[in-house]
Fold:
Amino acid sequence: MEFLYFDAGLGAMLAQAAVAVVAGVAVFYKSIKYKIKTIFGLHKESSEEVFDDIDVDDKSLKKPSKNDQ
Amino acid sequence: MTNNSRHASSYRDPSGHVYVENGIIKRVIFSTYFSQYKALQNTGFFQKAFQHQLLIPHEELKVSETEIHIQPTQIPFITYPYEWSFQQYKEAALLTLKLQKYALQHGFSLKDATAYNVAFFHGKAIFIDTLSLDFYKENTPWRAYKQFITHFLGPLVLAKYHGADFLKTMTSFIDGIPLKLLSSLLPTRTKLNPFLYTNIHLLARYEHKHQEENVEKRKQATLSKKGLFNIIDSLYNYIKKIKLKEQSEWGDYYQKTNYSDTAFQQKSTIINDWIQQLNAKKIIDVGGNDGTFVRQISADITLALVGDIDNNAVNQNYYLVKKNKEAHIIPFTIDLLNPSPAIGFQNTERFSFIKRVANFQPDVTLALALIHHLSLTGNVPFENSAQFFASISNNLLIEFPKRTDSYVQRLLNAKAEFKNHFEHYQIENFEKAYSFYFELVDKRPINDSERVLYLFKKKK
Structure:
């Protein structure tokens, strides 16, 4: 069942195809940059960093579930 | 007697709504949302999201054929997006993306992404709208994408270019900043940035172009899951790195004071003694800067709300909260001369700052190095500030910088030819005005300074 209780915006729905292409390039570039930096040992973790990465690791849970990807 | 009333902010989503019963926030879920709710529960998604501290935990209260009632963990004080510091705003945005990615990996998706879905609790941002999770349908774009841009990315990018004070304007945009306005407020050069061009300018153009068209066409919009992950990852990467032009990230905010170490120590000791004497558990510090004095309190406090007008000071306070893992401090920005109003439909969706503080019922209000700003910068008469403080709590711990204090002198000199209009700024007048609302409990001058600390108790 789909809820239409607020306007998602037709333009916003259509625009995401274009947004995703540019985002794909940026994400790909970032991963390459990260790999190169890691290979040459240039990757620095800032001690001031407060925010972690987007990925949530289910292994950190006490009882991992089978549903994990 | 049971007092069961629907929360005024909770009418937009037909899946259910929030209500208040005997002062406890609860949520009713209707049958239209049962399949989602059960799937989230049976797959273990809820439990995992709770453990990862992405979503506010809840307990099931009762289940019938037509309704399910749940009770979420209670949040003692809600701050709104226009009261967040830049870094808090960032964290709320990142949390939303993190939850969205985690949900997608488990076959769900956020159906809305407003900034009001996030609250600050135990020193971190947490998603509080349980019913925002819906099934993910393969090859569909993110229906909350536009909301995410207008509620999160837009305000953050505008703050980057125009300063963190921009975030305060979000009181005017309860549904997020309109895309056309957002696009027009950004410098033209942002059109050369592929990320900002696509996520803001192009989006605004698409929205404008398609606004008259039939919504049925929406079915034509498709997007692979990979594409969706790319959008979410790139938003996360950009927001994580976004910085204010006016500030060098966190950490080096300097608290300017005009008193010596001895005075500082004595001031901390007096505050500490009085807090212990009052056995205060809930505190509000309305001019708390970066939380320095609240951190000096050694007594056991349940919760300290620490507000300041300076977004940078609040950022620094929040940084310390995270670094020291302090669960009992909630930093927020507040301009006491213009505190957050009640907004939304019938002015009841989001409560005013004053109303929220009244509900919170702090044991004591701290007003340190503040009265000269209220009286001399804001021209607020002593009678009015006394009345204001008396409306917040029964006890008031207030610092009065005398006319001879260098900060007071500076504020008075800034008045130039109107300086003599401020002759009333005298300690005797202050005491007299405050005695109308308060009884004096204790009064101690701070050595090596031109300041006096007062402990007042509200008159019955």
Q: What stands out?
A: Residues 4-72 of chain B form one domain.
